[in-house]
Design goal:
- The structure is a homodimer of 318-residue chains.
- Chain A is 41% helix and 15% strand.
- By secondary structure, chain A is of the alpha/beta class.
- Chains A and B meet through helix 4, helix 5, strand 2, helix 6 and helix 7 of A and helix 4, helix 5, strand 2, helix 6 and helix 7 of B.
- The structure holds a DNA duplex (16 and 16 nucleotides).
Amino acid sequence: MKPDEPVLGRPTLRQVAALSGVSLKTASRVLNGEQYVAEATAAKVHAAAAQLGFRLNVIARELRAGARSTSVGLIIGDLSNPFYSRIARGIERRLRAEGLQLITASSDEDPELEHTLVSGMLERRVSAMLIVTSATDHAYLEVERRLGMPVAFIDRPPADIVADTIVLDNTAGAREAVEHLLRQKHRRIGLVGDLSRLTTHRERFAAFENAMTVLDLVPAPTALFTTNNRITIGALRALRDRPDPPALVGFDDFDLADLLGVTVIAHDPERMGELAAELVVDRIHGEQGPARQVLLPTRLVQRGSGERSAPRRATSRA
Amino acid sequence: MKPDEPVLGRPTLRQVAALSGVSLKTASRVLNGEQYVAEATAAKVHAAAAQLGFRLNVIARELRAGARSTSVGLIIGDLSNPFYSRIARGIERRLRAEGLQLITASSDEDPELEHTLVSGMLERRVSAMLIVTSATDHAYLEVERRLGMPVAFIDRPPADIVADTIVLDNTAGAREAVEHLLRQKHRRIGLVGDLSRLTTHRERFAAFENAMTVLDLVPAPTALFTTNNRITIGALRALRDRPDPPALVGFDDFDLADLLGVTVIAHDPERMGELAAELVVDRIHGEQGPARQVLLPTRLVQRGSGERSAPRRATSRA
DNA sequence: CTGAAAGCGCTAACAG
DNA sequence: CTGTTAGCGCTTTCAG
């Protein structure tokens, strides 16, 4: 026996039952709002529960055989990036309608940490996993899928397994950005992005390259395409005091882009979250079909920065 | 018996034990990395576990008497507001160092929903609660506190109980904003805020009023003080095309405030989150002292909008 | 309408 | 080094 055990822990159903002079099962019935309990009995039990500060232990309830857990796990790169927190919001909204509770963790885009976090959630018996992955190895999840664990990938498809996935139409988005700039007569368009391993960026980059093959990139570009919200903002800072800034189209919309007059390829992160949640909710409800791939549209929002036309001639010096 | 029960659920420790020909307890020891197990035995168990796709059930583990849960609940107004998601990030960071898992939910600033969400987390036996409250009645939490549940309030103090709390120094922040504007010779300063029941805003508003009592507010103000990030951004939009915008100081820093040249009363939301987590972590570790109140400093960041001086005279027309 | 018994998956205590 | 027993808090049979 340990020395300084706190006197009482949380009250249990047994204590409520004892205090109200009924059996465990009757107390359980009352507290779960089941029918077929005498009003007087119910009142006694409620009184005892209130007096003790009793709360049902959902953990214990869910431990019972066959009982489904009511939590869903989400792994995201960085919760403080508005793009991701909006996704999380959408997921949460959809899950709440289902009585499910979201458990979130940020992976810092670190594959190893991601793996650790996923394992932790699996061990906590979430009923589904939603992942914005930074990893390139998802074989360990294949086992889970076979065991019936619903897994959906958001924004970035898994590298080596098939699973429900929802991604943006990066190809169309990037193409639209570049074509828009070409329409303003730009012929030297620079891309600013990180050369990360993430498919998201690779796709956007590939589309960009395709559109650019015929162009000469030697002199300074007259227009820029930035591949995500962070980078767009970085570019804006860098270009801040330029007298003659290049045209700019950024992937991802962001707060204040309107005020700053930034043309973007916009999309709807909350909706992406909702649809992702939908994917796993269907699975939880027993949907058995093959993995689904959802492609979310993007749209060009013109606000000025992308409509600056190219200088008439190639004036290399001011 | 239900008709279409899936053939196998997740494998259990018992199955791993059976497959590897050892007892339950030995399998448990191996999978928990305890010592005093023969290497050969351990290898057999690991092999069986891998073959079955076994994962320890943390829920079951934590159900055991005396075992502490390893999750912490967070209720926040809106996860997609960067101010809050940064707080969440800070919390998460601190919690992770402790091996604790964060469970988050957005209350939409709705007191009733908040109560429901808190109850849900309590029933899930989180080991502590962190709350950015929208409610004015916290009596139900007093019961929890007495039962030993650590509860900390973030950004907004509880109305009717004493508990660990971390808030910004709203009073000093608002005073600094107004005094800064007064220093630029402004004498007609408008406040834009919502007259919500939230203490946060009431405090900022009260400080503002104090600083303003001697002033005449009849003509249009030459300067504005906006009471949070959302409102600052709203004001910026409203003032967008004004030829002669008033000076502006906003409470809360925000992304791109630098680019837009907005003077703000800044503070550190991630740090607020870390400190809040610290408060409950201490309690989880057994800290028994009286409720602590942490006051987080703010600081004025000058970026231009707050340094526009007042027009020399009261020229009522352009 | 109410209750007794069994057991969910796991680990602490106590033997061997 | 390994195994047995008991029990966490709850709900589900199955009987009263």
